[in-house]
Structures
1.
Amino acid sequence: MTSKNKIDKAILESAIKSLEAPGKSFSKLPKAESKTKPVLYVFRHGETFDNKRKIFSGWRQSRLTKKGITQAKILSEKLKHKKIDVAFESHLVRSMTTLKIVLKYHPQAKAEIDDRIIERNYGDLAGKSKTKMMKENPVLAAEYRRAYNFPPPHGESLKIVEKRVFPFCKDLIRRMKKEEINAAVSCHGNSMRVIRRFFEKLTIKEELTMENPLGQDYVSYVIR
């Protein structure tokens, strides 16, 4: 697939910023709480070795770095006094390790694997350097990383990711209401984008240009 050599300036800039500072959020994360309604807590895994090396990860297994573990511990402390009844993770070790650290203070919470929240599949780009690609062809690299409907060869676009994450969100809402429970989701950069678009009614451009923090912080929504 080839690039049309046109990309929104804000989207290109967001791709560059995220490469310079992976997982650095430039906006305050929304947090809502309730004592009478179910609450959903959503967060991204801590830094991995692929994040540190600026490699396309996707469905690759990449463990948390020491910094990533520290980030997950910071997140764990922030969620320490929240009520979590059930938690969701993908089968990728970075999601599972982050959730395990968070659930240290929630031994009653049941962890469940649901790969609808797995990271975007980067196909043939998995394992390749983001930095090298940005130097060689910044527009094409930005499109692969940030365009809405421009999947890498044998991979997924964000639009495709939405087709599995949106149903997960709808199913989760029904379950939380029916069982009257709070839930947590340990997800990935792109699946978190989609979850936030779903709950915050974001535009596609807002979804594409946001950067969610690696570990350390969370968003929360009251399920009404």
2.
Amino acid sequence: MSEIKVDTVAEKTSANGVTVDGLNIKDSKLVTANSVIETNLTDNIVTLAKMASGTDGNIISYDASGNPVAIATGSDGQVLTSTGAGSPPAFETPAAGGKLLQVVTNTHATRFATSSTSYVAATGYTIAITPSATSSKVYVVMNAHADNGASGRNMKATIYRGSTILSNADGFNTTLSSGARVYAPLSMSVLDSPNTSSAVTYQVYVKAYGGAISYNDAEGTATMTAFEIAG
């Protein structure tokens, strides 16, 4: 085997560099594609300055094939979230869980009387709200007064969304004693998941036992309030 012993191997022109057995060297750098392999690299030798330039805010990850990929920069306030196995993460707007999005309030001063032993809608005692997202929850609160009219009568009340009762069949409260005539405050609340971004209406329903009763008598004005809560 022949040897060539020299102190310096210089390039013939300033543009080409020097090629040795397919390895191209120019200006003290290896420039031939695929000429550097992992085993020839010293640990921690590649500095930030030697990495390829990218886009401000991008993050390096891996795609489903295991190849490096740049995660596009998100918007101000977004967070990096997992998109599941086999997919790079992504910058996404965080869910606004628990935030109060809107409040709607109605007041009602009309007395409603019934002797029905099945639930009937208390005319006028409604509140409508349009959720901003299908994942939102709606918390409905009602405050009013009731009058059983005479001893031996009683009532119960509940809240419906459309035709759907939002409590068990017996309602929220037995508000009046059956032993004497009573004027009593009546309060109810329910947390609902309407699963819609269209307008929904909540309605008070009441029923009587033993004779006619009055909902929201002259003792005060009823109030219904609906709170939209981010899901």
